[in-house]
Design brief:
Blueprint (H helix, E strand, L loop, with lengths): L10 E2 L11 E7 L4 E8 L1 H8 L5 H18 L7 E8 L3 E9 L3 E8 L1 H6 L7 H5 L2 E8 L7 E6 L5 H12 L4 E13 L5 E14 L29 H10 L4 H5 L5 H9 L4 E3 L3 E2 L1 E2 L5 H9 L3 H6 L7 E4 L6 E4 L1 H6 L1
Bound molecules: zinc ion.
Length: about 325
């Protein structure tokens, strides 16, 4: 799997005036440390995705973390198709899906048992309480006729971020640190009515191997037998320092709309010469359409179609990602 080559027009991060920017992933490198990273800031895009569903807060938070992970890892790949992070497990939240296109189009949804989630109580439940046991799959779909790549890790540890770190430890032997933060905001529209919004922010750093790969390959089968990563050696001093500095990031800093991604990077790593690359913009996009869904319906047999009829004799299909409902006359579906 080819990695993206950061744009040539890079700039040293300077404190600069506040230039808050949202809905992007900012790649960065710390010069002389052999450390690369990504900083993700999701504002309107995360409110848009979560706002299409009335998820209980713990489910919304978990999905937002999954979307952050997909955005940070997906923008590091040379994608032709899409990158998907999907969990599958036996707990109250049995499915989380987040996917991103090469253009930065992000979407996601969660499947859960509302009663079981409510029974967990008002406190933020743990990852295991929410998802139970299962796995997380990271998939690169290159489009028709091209290879897809998948890596799978157990859904364990205390967070979605820990699962992402686990993926790199197992498959690529790349020491990785990931932090994901989600915050619910109360926004007021021009009439003063309160409406819920969300913000999400994430940062990851990775110690580079000699060949400098970043998310080199999602296929865990490619690592040569007996290959050793840096984790086998005495921990590199630079890597230790990069980790300690990253651990000083406060949750609120990752979601503060008044603090730009560049300002945050500057605060963390300016003494070490942090360099930012061209940001990847993110937006909400769902590829569902009437034609697409009609095509799927046309692949169904007559019995399946009859099972789907509403009392009015119509077929209704809801897109899980964007929550839009498409209604069809069964005659129209059969006719074309
Ligand atoms: Zn849709």
């Amino acid at each position: 799997m080819e990695q993206t080559t950061p744009e040539a027009s890079t700039a040293r991060v300077t404190p600069g005036p506040a230039d808050p920017t949202d809905d992007l992933v900012l790649p960065f490198a710390i010069e002389g440390m052999s450390v690369r990273g990504r900083l993700a800031r999701l504002g309107p895009v995360i409110s848009e995705i979560l706002g299409r569903h009335a998820y209980p807060a713990p489910v919304a938070r978990l999905l937002a973390e999954t979307l952050l992970l997909a955005a940070m890892l997906g923008t590091a790949l040379k994608l032709e198709g899409r990158f998907t992070v999907q969990t599958s497990s036996d707990g109250p939240v049995d499915l989380l899906v987040a996917d991103m296109t090469k253009e930065g189009g992000l979407r996601g949804y969660a499947h859960f048992d509302a009663d079981k989630v409510a029974a967990l109580g008002a406190e933020m439940p743990t990852l295991e309480e929410l998802t139970g046991k299962g796995s997380m799959a990271l998939t690169i779909d290159q489009g028709p006729g091209r290879n897809s790549y998948q890596g799978v890790v157990p859904l364990e540890g205390d967070s979605i971020a820990a699962c992402g770190e686990d993926y790199f430890r197992r498959s690529e032997q790349l020491p990785t640190l990931i932090k994901l933060v989600v915050a619910e905001t109360l926004e007021r529209d021009t009439d003063g009515a309160a409406g819920g919004g969300w913000r999400a922010g994430g940062i990851m750093i990775q110690q580079m191997p000699e060949d400098g790969g970043f998310v080199r390959d999602l296929d865990p089968g490619d690592a040569p037998d007996g290959s050793t990563g840096h984790h086998d050696e005495a921990e590199d001093e630079n890597w230790s320092r990069a980790k300690i500095l990253m651990q000083t990031v406060e949750d609120h800093e990752l979601v503060d709309p008044a603090l730009s991604a560049e300002q945050l990077l500057y605060r963390l790593y300016h003494e070490d010469g942090v360099r930012a690359f061209a940001p990847h913009p993110l937006s909400f996009s769902c590829r569902c359409s009437r034609e697409y869904i009609k095509g799927i319906l046309q692949g169904f047999g007559e019995d399946d179609m009859s099972d789907m009829l509403t009392e009015e004799g119509r077929i209704e299909v809801r897109c899980e990602f964007c929550n839009r409902t498409f209604e069809f006359d069964p005659e129209d579906v059969r006719a074309s």
